[in-house]
Inverse folding.
């Protein structure tokens, strides 16, 4: 096994692990406030669940990038490519956008979701606006996912 | 366009027909009644509110009582109307006349009294139960004590002291006590993590000497405070017997409640007819009356005017009705009337906010964009088809309310859009076609290679550019809509200066950036357009300022807004990213399924992995597509032109919760 592939593994691991951790924290934050709302009005379960699920997407984006990295270096095909140190670093770097932005945006999206859950508890008619607030935060996760995909796509192996 | 034309109406009628008239209006259900503002609209004097007879018949109270009964009884249903089942059984239909009979015949008060007493019994039982459980928990700690709580209090010469102490203090306490009084006996009843449960036995005459020692070592004395007698063991037995009795009583009451519920299903229609009555009472508060006449003011959709006039003429004589167009600035309620095809998309606009009465309904244009964008975000034939089929099934087979049907129709369209998107990028449950047997290679090749216009995993750029181009289209549409809106409001010059200048500038920039793909002379033309656009922005955007330097300064600053448009357009890259994500996650599950290489059951497991994985992906990608698509409409599109803030048109009608009313 070459040095490069170790770095590529690290990249995949960071993308999956960090973005996933962020999502876990974010979903947790939203869930806590969702549970609070449901003690008052259990009929809001559907909406609350929807809002709680929103910060979960970063983890999926992270997994997605990790998967792309692993496909790219041929793990699933059974014949891992031999990567130079340089190539390995490139792959590691291209995993970083979703790892970093995924981690932080998930946490803050969790907070925005928690706020939105509070909003629908008091004013259920404003559901549309409540859904948009957390989606604003997610923009940056989507953009970093895009960045990771484009970077990864540009690497010559 | 598709905001319904709405008129204001005033009805003046003789007092004697007040009740039948209101009744008729409610049953027609096509008008919203509003408050009459005295000064402006009343030509006559001595108009008063109708106060005297409101709530005279106690509708509100009755309704409250019935609600109480339903809240209680519905917990003890016979399981008929709960859960999924309720989706397949439609609400009972009653005729309006039947409903009125129910109010007269149904003896609700008897049921209310029964409910009330059963409820209070239940509450008592619950209290008893809690008390018993607390006592049980407390006494369980002393279970090992072989003495009678009551009896030891009455001993003549010996003092028994029960209590707890922290473990670390115990040894010191024992030492101190032995030092003071050698006859005292200390016995540990129970050991917990940090505390000990102890009984002291000491001569009464010596107790006063012991007491300060106990305090010194933070010994907490336990006072038994329950009425039960006997040793802890016996008491616990008594308690559990009593708990059994409570549970039995509860069961009896629950049986009674279930029977009461089963025998009195009429309480549901009763609730609805009472809430209809209640709405009528509420409407009365909005009316005004003079000595002989009542006045009703409200809003009506123009298409219903004829129907209203005809019905009124049929039933009444002593009335006068007049219609007028709403004045500017009046808060007109909004009803949308769109073609059936795009009606479901009203949901998206409504989720944000209804349009203002004097502006354009965004629904028709929004529906086109929403449809396209959703397809790009979901972009999988398999998922789109599942969505479309499931919602089609829901519309056909389930007994749904109007609002729910509208929502499922929206999902149906979104599913179809997903199919189209999927064909475009060649995604069929991800790459499931790759696992087809080689004999079917032709089908695969046709579907994935020929039919699909994009191969985003191999070459992402074309699809990304398509996403951005769609973004440019929508942003431009937004600006143009604002321009049209300005013209409609006789602000042509504002439109020219604020929107057309930007359109020129942005078009110029885009042409300039893409000049590589166009004939040479386009480069110069685009440069000219850009400069004209920029100049007109600089010259016009500062026009509100009164100093020439400030005018120029704010004009130049306004150019900076171009970054806003840039980020708007870049925001549409999410279409590409989300679409790609759906496909790749699906691919991931397909691969996971092939990894299950267990003999015999491997095939089954693989299918389970596929079903669970794809369901999960469908849900999460569908949700993402729904929300991000909506966000693009709200944040990037609506901000360009949409004022929103309309109040929905809520007609005065027969509104029900548990049943359907049929009224002809």
């Amino acid at each position: 096994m070459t040095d490069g592939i170790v770095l590529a593994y690290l990249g995949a691991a960071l993308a999956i692990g960090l973005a996933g951790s962020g999502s876990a924290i974010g979903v947790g934050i939203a869930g806590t406030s969702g549970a609070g709302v449901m003690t008052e009005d259990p009929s809001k379960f559907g909406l609350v669940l929807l809002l709680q699920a929103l910060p979960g997407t970063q983890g999926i984006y992270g997994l997605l990038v990790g998967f792309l990295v692993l496909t790219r270096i041929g793990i699933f095909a059974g014949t891992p490519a031999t990567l130079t140190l340089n190539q390995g670093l490139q792959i590691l770097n291209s995993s970083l956008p979703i790892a970093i932005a995924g981690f932080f945006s998930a946490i803050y999206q969790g907070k925005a979701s928690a706020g939105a859950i509070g909003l629908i508890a008091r004013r259920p008619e404003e559901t549309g606006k409540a859904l948009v607030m957390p989606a604003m935060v997610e923009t940056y996760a989507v953009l970093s996912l895009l960045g990771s995909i484009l970077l990864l796509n540009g690497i010559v192996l | 366009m598709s905001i319904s034309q709405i008129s204001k109406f005033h009805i003046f009628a003789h007092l004697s027909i007040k009740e039948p008239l209101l009744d008729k209006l409610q049953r027609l259900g096509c008008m919203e009644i509003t408050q009459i503002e005295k000064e402006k609209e009343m030509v006559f004097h001595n108009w008063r509110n109708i106060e005297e007879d409101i709530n005279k018949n106690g509708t509100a109270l009755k309704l409250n009582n019935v609600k109480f009964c339903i809240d209680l009884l519905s917990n003890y249903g016979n399981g008929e109307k709960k859960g999924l089942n309720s989706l397949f059984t439609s609400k009972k239909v009653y005729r309006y006349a039947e409903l009125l009979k129910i109010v007269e015949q149904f003896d609700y008060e008897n049921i209310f009294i029964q409910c009330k007493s059963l409820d209070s019994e239940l509450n008592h039982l619950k209290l008893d139960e809690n008390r018993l459980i607390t006592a049980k928990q407390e006494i369980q700690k002393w279970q090992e004590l072989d003495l009678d709580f009551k009896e030891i209090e009455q001993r003549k010469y010996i003092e028994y002291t029960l209590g707890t102490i922290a473990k670390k203090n115990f040894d010191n306490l024992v030492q101190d006590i032995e030092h003071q009084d050698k006859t005292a006996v200390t016995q540990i009843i129970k050991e917990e993590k940090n505390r000990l449960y102890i009984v002291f036995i000491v001569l009464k005459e010596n107790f006063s000497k012991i007491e300060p020692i106990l305090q010194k070592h933070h010994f907490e004395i336990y006072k038994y405070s329950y009425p039960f007698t006997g040793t802890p063991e016996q008491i616990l037995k008594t308690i559990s017997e009593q708990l059994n009795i409570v549970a039995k009583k509860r069961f009896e009451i629950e049986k009674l409640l279930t029977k009461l519920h089963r025998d009195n299903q009429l309480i549901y229609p009763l609730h609805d007819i009472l809430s209809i009555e209640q709405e009528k009472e509420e409407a009365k508060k909005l009316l005004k009356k003079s000595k002989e006449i009542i006045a009703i003011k409200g809003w009506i959709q123009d298409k219903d005017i004829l129907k209203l006039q005809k019905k009124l003429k049929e039933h009444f004589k002593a009335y006068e009705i007049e219609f007028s167009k709403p004045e500017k600035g009046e808060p007109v309620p909004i009803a949308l009337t769109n073609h059936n095809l795009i009606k479901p998309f009203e949901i998206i606009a409504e989720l944000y906010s209804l349009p203002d009465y004097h502006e354009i309904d965004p629904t028709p244009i929004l529906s086109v964009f929403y449809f396209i964008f959703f397809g790009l975000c979901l972009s999988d034939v398999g998922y789109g088809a599942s969505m479309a089929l499931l919602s089609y099934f829901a519309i056909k087979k389930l007994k749904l309310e109007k609002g729910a049907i509208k929502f499922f129709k929206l999902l149906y369209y979104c599913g179809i859009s997903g199919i189209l998107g999927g064909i475009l990028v060649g995604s069929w449950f991800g790459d499931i076609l790759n696992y087809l047997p080689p004999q079917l290679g032709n089908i695969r090749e046709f579907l994935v290679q020929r039919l699909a216009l994009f191969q985003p995993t191999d070459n992402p750029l074309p699809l990304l550019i398509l996403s951005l181009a769609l973004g440019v289209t929508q942003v431009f549409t937004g600006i143009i809509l604002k321009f049209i809106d300005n013209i409609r409001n006789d602000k042509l010059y504002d439109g020219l200066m604020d929107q057309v200048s930007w359109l020129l500038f942005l078009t110029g920039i885009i042409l300039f950036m893409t000049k590589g793909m166009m004939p040479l002379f386009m480069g110069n033309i685009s440069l000219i357009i850009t400069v004209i656009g920029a100049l007109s922005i600089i010259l016009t955007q500062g026009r509100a300022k009164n100093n020439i330097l400030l005018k120029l300064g704010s004009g130049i600053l306004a150019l900076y807004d171009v970054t806003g448009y840039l980020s708007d357009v870049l925001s549409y890259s999410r279409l590409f990213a989300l679409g790609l994500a759906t496909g790749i996650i699906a691919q991931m599950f397909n691969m996971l399924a092939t990894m299950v290489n267990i003999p015999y059951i491997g095939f089954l497991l693989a299918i389970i992995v596929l079903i669970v994985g794809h369901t999960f992906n469908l849900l999460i990608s569908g949700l993402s597509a729904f929300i991000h698509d909506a966000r693009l409409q709200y944040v990037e599109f609506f901000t360009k032109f949409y004022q929103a803030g309309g109040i929905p048109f809520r007609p005065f009608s027969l509104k029900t919760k548990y049943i359907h009313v049929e009224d002809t």
In short: Residues 568 and 636 of chain B are 6 Å apart (CA to CA).
